[in-house]
Amino acid sequence: MSDKRVKHLEKIKEAIDRSELSEEEKSNSFKHIEEWYEEDRAFGALYEKLSEISPKIEALLNELGLI
User: Fold this and answer.
1) Nearest-CA neighbor of 37 among 13, 61, 65, 67?
2) Kindly report the CA angle at 55 between 51 and 58, in degrees rounded to 5?
3) d(CA 41, CA 28)
4) DSSP result, 36-56
5) Between 22 and 67, where is the model more confident?
6) Long-range contacts of range 36-45, CB-CB < 8 Å, 24 or more positions apart?
7) Which of 23, 30, 39, 43 has minimal CB crowding within 10 Å?
8) Alpha-carbon distance 50 to 26, whole Å?
């Protein structure tokens, strides 16, 4: 994941922490953010492996709107 995305996630986490949400709502929100982070990281790893197979993969993923 890029540094830019990590910084955005950190800002979101900080905003949630400062919010008036209950502790349970904050906890659930943090769990969802962590899931999104892991999914994004996994997609990045998959993209890297696929691009090693063929440079045409990037064009295909772009056409599908995935990158």
Assistant:
1) 13
2) 70
3) 20
4) HHHHHHHHHHHHHHHHHH-TH
5) 22
6) 36/9, 37/1, 37/9, 40/1, 40/5, 41/1, 44/1
7) 23
8) 36
Q: What is the pLDDT of residue 8?
A: 82
Name the maximum alpha-carbon separation found in the chain.
48
Q: Which two tokens stand for residue 16?
A: 């949630």
Token digits of residue 43: 């997609």
**pLDDT one-digit tens code per residue, 13-62:** 889 989 998 999 999 988 988 888 888 888 888 878 887 888 787 777 77
